[in-house]
Amino acid sequence: MSKRTSYAAVAADGAPAKNIDITRESSPPPYDKQKDLLGSDTGHFSLIRAMHLADLITELNGLCGVLSLFSSMRYLIDPSSLGNIYAALALIPLGLFFDFFDGKVARWRKKSSMMGQELDSLADLISFGVSPAIAAFAIGIRTPLDHLCLAFFVLCGLTRLARFNVTATTIPKDATGKAAYFEGTPIPTSLALDALMAWWVSRGWIHDAIPFGTLFEGSMFEVHPVVVLFMIHGCLMTSKTLHVPKP
Questions:
Q1: What's residue 122's pLDDT?
Q2: Strand partners, 223
Q3: What is the pLDDT of residues 70-82, one digit of tens each?
Q4: pTM for the full model?
Q5: Cα separation of 164 and 124, whole Å?
Q6: How many Å separate Cα 157 from the centre of its chain?
């Protein structure tokens, strides 16, 4: 620890007041090994060595999202293989498990970082934004207007995560230091859409049998009405006034 001594006080009008010896102990800022490794110009595998255990778990969340995308694409190649679309939909809640687990590990080890926060947001975008949208495309929600609506959903998720990274420090905290609430619905709530699509697949309500069919069929405005669910969810994610208490 370093000691700093203040030997003179100054009055409010700028005149020197009587000498006062004040000895204060101040702690130096904790050494941030990750920041040092990331900012270093030398050293092999510095990025890998800089990652915390929680960061590696976050990577598993992103892996689930990527594998979900691949499974949806495999289903598009062979629509008769329902196992691929089931795998695509099942990998999304598995990603949520890792999303919860990385936060618990970070708090347990008392290690958090800006890199971890950015990794978490990017992994969430893949697993809970892009993956559900591609799964919806795979089961038949794929007219040009559907594309725009699904893109709107993904971009809302992207914007919501970016806003969270900017405002995380300004949101009121509870006794444990966690944010007291979410602004807008958190992006993992897209699991509700994931579960709905899994139910449709189990009932055979996919492709030409998607619930509520299509509107304006054969025109440039052809659209599946169910895609509105994705748009509503996107709007809820970006809401500023909707405060969802954190569990």
A1: 96
A2: 215
A3: 999 999 999 999 9
A4: 0.80
A5: 12
A6: 8
